[in-house]
Amino acid sequence: MTTPIVGLGASFEFATTASPSTYTTLSGVTAITFSGDKVTTEKTTTMATTGGIDTYITGTQDPGSADVKAFYLPGDTSQVSLEAIRLAAQPVAMKATYGTSNSCTFTGIVESFTPSIPLDKPATLDIKIKLSGPRVFA
Fold first, then answer.
1. How large is the average pLDDT for residues 24-50?
2. In angstroms, rounded to a whole number, what is the distance separating the alpha carbons of residues 134 and 138?
3. Is the distance from CB of 114 to CB of 20 less than 8 angstroms?
4. Is 104 exposed, middle or buried, given 0-12, 13-18 or 19+ CB atoms closer than 10 A?
5. How far apart are CA 79 and CA 25, in angstroms?
6. For the residues of 3-53, what is the DSSP string, one character each?
7. Which stretch of DSSP H or E encloses residue 79?
8. DSSP type of residue 104
9. What is the DSSP string of 82-103?
10. Which of 44, 62, 131, 133 has a Cα at 20 to 30 A from 53?
11. How far does CA 5 lie from the centroid of its chain?
12. pLDDT category, 117, cuts 50, 70, 90?
């Protein structure tokens, strides 16, 4: 029987664009959220469809996105590297590791890298990543 997990000890890693590619662990991560994955559907109902109930076929699959939240650490080499990947607009291999030995690998494009620096709270970083291709769970 499996048991629920919490994020303590989880990590988010991304590969460099250089060859050979190496993984870097992003510093300060507080949350990793996957969302928006879906299969498109195309309506196939015709005037002759029995009972007037819509029918569908499946279309393409959208792998969705990943939102990574972290404490903003100005000058941190891992955060500077991820921002450079966003500026390069290149897809790279990424990996979320959680639990004792579970992981999810995927190719992603960093869409945004947005720091927030409030007056009386720790500075935060919101990173939005568009997945390209399938997620692989291990």
1. 94
2. 13
3. no
4. middle
5. 9
6. ----STT-EEEEE-SSSS--EEEPTTEEEEEEE--EEEEEE---TT-GGG-
7. helix 77-88
8. E
9. HHHHHHHT--EEEEEEETTTEE
10. 62
11. 19
12. very high
- Each residue's pLDDT tens digit, 10-33: 999 999 876 677 899 999 999 999
Distance of alpha carbon 119 from alpha carbon 99, whole angstroms = 34
Locate 22 and state its tokens.
């190496």
The whole-model pTM stands at 0.88
d(CA 15, CA 26): 11
User: Are the beta carbons of 106 and 131 closer than 8 angstroms?
Assistant: yes
Do the Cβ atoms of 76 and 117 come closer than 8 Å? no
- Residue pLDDT, tens place only, 84-97: 999 999 999 999 99
